[in-house]
Amino acid sequence: MRLCTCRGPELAKLTFGFASAIIGALMTTFIILPTYNEAQNLAPMVTQLLAQPLPDVHILVIDDNSQDGTGIIADELCERYPQRVFVMHRAGKLGLGTAYIAGFRYALEHGADCIIQMDCDFSHSPAYLPHFVARLGEYDVVVGSRYVPGGKLDPRWSGWRYWLSKWANSVWVRFILGTQVRDATAGFKCWSRRALERIPLEAVRSNGYVFQVEMAYLCEKLGLRVLEYPIFFEDRRIGQSKMTVPVKLEAAWRVLEIRLRYGGLAHSARVEYQRVSA
Ligand SMILES: Nc1nc2c(ncn2[C@@H]2O[C@H](COP(=O)(O)OP(=O)(O)OP(=O)(O)O)[C@@H](O)[C@H]2O)c(=O)[nH]1
Ligand SMILES: [Mg+2]
């Protein structure tokens, strides 16, 4: 006699598919894509995003007057996908932080239930989106994390870059701010409306890459339920990084500034990570 062999993985997949279908079907999702010189990445990225099984999805491109014509491509995409793709043109390179704040406000004003922030260089794979959205019933924020079990960095990263990122997350930010999240600099996040409504966006001042850290810190300070979901972080395929050494140094000292501005972290952090099946 054969006992019912455990169909755990299939059952989990089915349950996940069902939950994701239900949650996804009810949600209006806005994807915020800040761009600066992403002419070769933008159109393929939008195509892949629209191919994801998310029914009511809108993409907002926030372009800072890119010199390589990204803004013109964004306008063409708006025409090709009316009511799906939108573009906000800004006068110049005004920074990632203000781009995201503007995008969050726009999404909230236009009825978003779920707001996704991601890079436009394929470091953040669109394939994760349905998985993130499906978890917003239980969590307020889902973070695409490189530093939880199952998460992975592109092996093409140099040892120096790997070390610096790991040190910034595991030592510097944790030590200064006392945060629990393992990938505090993650730029791939899925926010529920209720989470962004609780964060005082007008108080968020970081504009460069440390914006991600300030938002992660506020999530914990406010006791939002955060899930770190392991991702494979691929190095950008085309185009140039805007992450120069001065930008990195500025980010490091700005962590101190966040600490001074908000004071000590109240013990309200509720961070978990998605366990991956072996
Ligand atoms: N609107 C706007 N977008 C920006 C700005 N700076 C960077 N971006 C975009 O933000 C995303 C992240 O920038 P990246 O240059 O990839 O920086 P990064 O991901 O930290 O660095 P890499 O790991 O080297 O790719 C990309 O989609 C950029 O085009 C800015 O000042 N304004
Ligand atoms: Mg990038």
Structure commentary:
- The structure is a single chain.
- By secondary structure, the protein is an alpha/beta fold.
- It has a single domain, classed as Alpha-Beta Complex (Spore Coat Polysaccharide Biosynthesis Protein SpsA, Chain A).
- The protein is 42% helix and 17% strand.
- The chain contains 9 helices and 10 strands.
- An 8-stranded mixed β-sheet has the order 3-2-1-4-7-5-8-10, sandwiched between helices. A two-stranded parallel sheet has the order 6-9.
- β2, α3 and β3 form a beta-alpha-beta unit.
- The protein starts with 7 loop residues before the first helix and ends in a 5-residue tail after the last strand.
- Bound molecules: guanosine-5'-triphosphate and magnesium ion.
- Magnesium ion binds next to loops.
- The site of guanosine-5'-triphosphate has 21 residues, from β1, β2 and α4.
Helix and strand topology:
Blueprint: H1 8-26, E1 28-35, H2 39-50, E2 56-63, H3 70-80, E3 85-89, H4 96-109, E4 114-117, H5 129-134, E5 141-145, E6 152-153, H6 159-177, E7 189-192, H7 193-198, H8 211-221, E8 225-230, E9 232-233, H9 245-262, E10 270-273
Parallel strand pairs: 1-2, 1-4, 2-3, 5-8, 6-9, 8-10
Antiparallel strand pairs: 4-7, 5-7
Helix pairs in contact: 2-3, 6-9
Bound molecules: guanosine-5'-triphosphate (GTP) and magnesium ion.
Guanosine-5'-triphosphate binds at residues 34-36, 38, 62-64, 93-96, 99, 119-121, 123, 209, 236, 241-243.
